[in-house]
Design brief:
It is a single chain. It is built from one helix and five strands. It is an alpha+beta fold. The chain has one domain. The chain has a five-stranded antiparallel sheet with strand order 2-3-1-4-5, covered by helices on one side. Strand 4 and strand 5 form a beta hairpin. The N and C termini lie far apart (about 30 Å).
């Protein structure tokens, strides 16, 4: 089980590991703190890798590999953004 991370309260999930890696690098390039991590069990989806980050999510960061973005609130997660299903 993933413990709460108040310094990295946002979690982005992806369709592919490559998508997660690209997102993490993009945020790091913008000077934002972002780390690759396993997806918490409560959110267990897709590729199994997520990016935890501190900056407020901006929809301009979304691409075709992004699945969803959540805010961690204690041991729960609130959906902030989800890509549309085709």
């Amino acid at each position: 089980m993933s413990s709460p991370s108040p310094e990295l309260p946002h979690i982005a999930t992806f369709h592919t590991h490559y998508g997660a890696l690209c997102f993490q690098r993009r945020l790091a390039g913008l000077g934002e703190r972002a780390v690759l991590a396993p997806v918490p069990r409560k959110l267990s989806v897709s590729c199994g890798t997520c990016v935890r980050f501190s900056a407020p999510f901006q929809t301009g960061w979304a691409d075709e590999d992004l699945e969803a973005v959540y805010a961690q609130e204690g041991t729960d997660y609130r959906l902030l953004f989800q890509t549309e299903e085709e």
